[in-house]
Design a protein that fits this description.
Strand order of the largest sheet: 2-1-5-4-3-13
Distance between the termini: 129 Å
Oligomer: single chain
Number of helices: 11
CATH architecture of the largest domain: 2-Layer Sandwich
CATH superfamily of the largest domain: Histidine kinase-like ATPase, C-terminal domain
Shape: elongated
CATH topology of the largest domain: Heat Shock Protein 90
Length: 453
């Protein structure tokens, strides 16, 4: 109390300085201890690294072995992955092969694959059944099928010339001597080098179908013959009845004028019967056709002039495009003249004046080219009930007609490889459309063209 009083109640300066120094020493001591501890820990780590580096330097083979072991382990993992992928590819390839073999084995059409060397690489069961042969693979096609058979000739041309044969109908004799009708399609196998490396042949047994078609055709021919016979019998019956009536009248008549009149009518009926027989023979007799180039434009002009002479009051016009066609000019003239005359007769009684138009259209892109000739008139048209029957023999709506004109037209056009159809025009009148190929194709058993699969 005395000391605080003497100093005025405050700490002495020397005591404050001592306390400050003690505090600084404590802080420095703590920092020093921490620094030493960090240095000791870092030194121990460095010493361990040094020992590890020293161990590596002292034993490099162990390090290399460990590295190689890691690389080998990685390669084995990649090998296992590649093996798994290869296994999946093999399974997919085997599955595709099994599917392809199953499709080939069970397909209804016969399949032959022939190599460029002439060996049969593959033949499915349908091909062996169709051909009546067994164990076809790895045999030469000309030995297995016969050196002179039609199928051998087609396969040889395909392999040699690269020809394609589509939808052909050929004859094939089995080893048992059975004759079969086969439908064939043959195409070459061509790689990028355009060298034929083989041929693929599809086969179908059409024997039963061909026989059925022949039977149907025979029935149709017999039915047509029956209709023709009925038509001829009807015409003959009418003519003979008229002749018989006038002959009986001759026996009772005495004046020369009545005798002459009856004789004239008998002659008319005999001429009518002769005309029917002549027209029937034209229809029934096979056509002998010339194969020549026919200029359609001048032919149409001559037909129009001849038809105009018989119907001078009917105007006949010609327009459009006309080309040359291969065929028989006389037969084509007969067919077109019949159509134009019919059109002129139909337009004869038109209120506004009869008009007939002959129009030509050439389509050069259709096959080898198509010439279309349309005959249009402004007459009354064709009754709808008669349209399906106008090309039938002995069907006619004319009082003096034989019913063979349009039937003969259809036969001529069909013989030229074309077609003819009739229809009514929306503005009135009828239209007959004749379609002719520019180059008439001779019927063959196969169609061939260059190309490949």
């Amino acid at each position: 109390m005395t000391l605080l009083a003497e100093t005025g109640g405050t700490w002495p300066i020397w005591l404050t300085a001592i306390c400050f120094l003690l505090l600084v020493m404590i802080v420095v001591s703590l920092f020093t201890l921490a620094l030493r501890k960090f240095a000791r820990t870092h030194h121990e780590d460095n010493r361990e690294d040094a020992r590890a580096q020293k161990a590596v330097m002292q034993n490099p083979s162990a390090f290399m072995a460990a590295s190689m072991e890691a690389v080998i382990r990685k390669l084995k993992e990649q090998e296992r992955e590649l093996e798994r992928l290869h296994q999946e590819e093999r399974e997919r390839a085997e599955q595709t092969l099994r599917l392809s073999e199953a499709v080939t084995r069970h397909m209804p059409a016969g399949l032959l694959v022939v190599s460029a060397a002439g060996l049969i690489i593959s033949a499915n069961p349908a091909a062996e059944t169709t051909l009546g042969l067994r164990a076809l693979p790895f045999r030469r096609y000309n030995e297995a099928l016969g050196a002179d058979s039609e199928l051998t000739n087609l396969l040889g041309r395909c392999l040699k010339e690269g020809l394609v044969f589509r939808r052909g109908l050929i004859r094939h004799v089995t080893p048992e001597g059975e004759l079969r009708r086969l439908g064939v399609t043959i195409s070459p196998i061509e790689p990028e080098t355009a060298t034929v490396s083989g041929a693929i042949c599809l086969l179908s047994d059409l024997t039963e179908l061909t026989l059925l078609q022949k039977q149907v055709q025979l029935k149709e021919n017999l039915a047509a013959l029956g209709e023709l016979s009925a038509g001829i019998a009807h015409e003959f019956k009418n003519g003979l009845a008229t002749i018989s009536g006038y002959a009986q009248m001759l026996r009772s008549e005495t004046t020369p004028s009545e005798v002459a009149e009856c004789a004239a009518r008998i002659l008319d009926q005999t001429r009518s019967i002769t005309h029917v027989v002549t027209e029937f023979l034209k229809y029934a007799r096979p056509l002998e056709m010339a194969d020549e180039q026919v200029a359609v434009q001048p032919l149409v002009e001559r037909v129009a002039a001849e038809a105009g002479e018989t119907q001078p009051e009917v105007s006949i016009f010609i327009d459009g495009q006309f080309s040359d066609v291969s065929g028989d000019e006389a037969l084509l003239r007969q067919a077109l003249l019949n159509l134009v005359r019919n059109a002129a007769e139909a337009a004869h009684s038109a209120p506004a004046g009869g008009r007939v138009r002959i129009r030509g259209i050439v389509n050069a892109k259709a096959g080898g080219g198509i010439q279309q000739i349309s005959v249009l008139d402004n007459g009354p048209g064709i009754p709808p009930a008669d349209l399906p029957r106008i090309f039938q023999p002995f069907y006619t709506t004319k009082t003096q007609g034989t019913g063979l004109g349009l039937a003969i037209v259809q036969k001529i056009i069909l013989q030229h490889g074309g077609s003819v159809e009739a229809r009514n025009r929306s503005q009135g009148g009828a239209e007959f459309i004749v379609t002719l190929p520019v180059r008439r194709q001779v019927e063959e058993t196969v169609e061939s063209a260059l190309g490949g699969i």
